[in-house]
Design brief:
Blueprint: E1 2-9, H1 14-22, E2 31-36, E3 43-49, H2 53-64, E4 67-76, H3 79-90
Antiparallel strand pairs: 1-3, 1-4, 2-3
């Protein structure tokens, strides 16, 4: 399960966070990728990998202290997973299809 996370870093704690990331004290293993906004580098966006929502909450918990604001946390899928999900949904026997004449 993947989660898209958009946060504002607390600039007063940036040096502490940087040090913990650099020395390996903060576990980044669940973070797949990270970006910052060009116009506001204090806003970070990342994709996290977790087994489920509880696992994700445990992974992000140590980082929450370094965020002054959490804008968004959203479950995400890859494009291939989205196609598979759409295909399964479309071909599901539960889906009711109606023929429409044009």
């Amino acid at each position: 399960m993947r989660f898209f996370v958009k946060v504002r870093i607390d600039l007063n704690k940036l040096n502490e966070l940087g040090a913990k990331l650099q020395n390996g004290e903060a576990d980044r293993s669940a973070i797949i990728s990270t970006w910052c906004l060009a116009d506001d580098p204090s806003v970070g966006m990342s994709v996290w990998q977790a087994e489920d929502e509880n696992h994700f909450e445990n992974l992000i918990a140590p980082f929450r202290n370094y965020y002054s604001e959490i804008f968004e946390i959203t479950k995400v899928v890859t494009a291939a997973e989205a196609q598979l999900y759409h295909s399964e949904l479309y071909h599901s026997p539960k889906r009711v299809r109606k023929n429409i004449s044009v």
